[in-house]
């Protein structure tokens, strides 16, 4: 079984889920002979005698992703990495880290949970929560885009995330359980035990008490996170390649994090994980898949090397001199989405990353204007009690999980983050594809940018990119 070891942040890779408020938790491995997971990128095709080579180096093969020349392996040999790097066919190899989720703590001094919204009555077809959907209403022009196109079931959005609640009343008709897959060792299905993936799916294709961007679209889960988090690069890479092979039209990746790449990393050039991301995205795009990703929630300028290095220093005490990237937000070929909010056309959400890599913005919600003002004055201040959860994005949540702490609602939740922004754009891309199935990813991206609402400074800017995406505008172009 593929079991990655938890590592301290002084290693060369860091990942996190770009969720409502989810981040990295990594702790030192205990013991000296524990089995560790490794990621290996080959220069060209994977050698035919792969297993023999890995075994000779003291390891065993776990996952082989032939299409992109990536392999994961495990070993308890402390010299495994040194040995495998001696293989002339290996471009890069490194210890593979596992990502864990660190959710917001409801016990802290907090904004009050929302308790005045009626619980869902699944037997009442007239009950709905449309009035809570400021985000979807804005990018659909008050649902007018649905009168033109709701998408169709032939158009599939692959959601690389925590899985789905396939039995949610708002999703069950559109969620493809049979085609969904899990890449998490020890799991047998793609059911969501965290909530994040189901929330993402609702923004794309919910059709019930709430409505997604494309209520007739099909959503399919590619589960890479467990109930309490945990995802390795090989699982994410494998999921993206598999989604492309399955013929999905759009992929949503509301995940990401910082990667530091020192020059001549590992004496083999680029890091194996960065190679994996580049190759997997390129592979998907060549197969016609539009890949939409979250910009991340670090409040950092992705176009500034100084800002990135400062982030490492302030957050982790690491004095990094080499280049740093947020992935997949800064991988060529993706649509990178920053987060807008309900109350301003001039300011993006306080947590959203920004900079030259931003292609487009979409509503991801925030904690309201008062919290925003305080945060911008002092990002390290303590004013959680000023959070107003009604400004967050409302969407589906697993019916079998306890309510998310921002409200007492069952089956729905208020969350915020670039994770909530990206699926709006994924939904827009999918509706466009349903109307124009022959469009290439670059053409889909161009139409989304061309028809965006011009928020922020006039024209392209580092906060909103081309502006806030709008499916009504795209359909009436």
TrEMBL record:
The keyword Hydrolase applies. GO terms for molecular function: serine-type endopeptidase activity. The active site is at residues 161, 196, 419. InterPro entries: Lanit_process (IPR008357), Peptidase_S8/S53_dom (IPR000209), Peptidase_S8/S53_dom_sf (IPR036852), Peptidase_S8_Asp-AS (IPR023827), Peptidase_S8_His-AS (IPR022398), Peptidase_S8_Ser-AS (IPR023828), Peptidase_S8_subtilisin-like (IPR050131), Peptidase_S8_subtilisin-rel (IPR015500). One of its GO terms (biological process) is proteolysis. Keywords: Hydrolase, Protease, Serine protease, Signal. The keyword Metal-binding does not apply. Residues 154-467 form the Peptidase S8/S53 domain. Residues 1-23 form the signal peptide. Residues 104-125, 176-195 are annotated as: Disordered. Belongs to the peptidase S8 family. This is Nisin leader peptide-processing serine protease NisP. It comes from Brevibacillus borstelensis AK1.
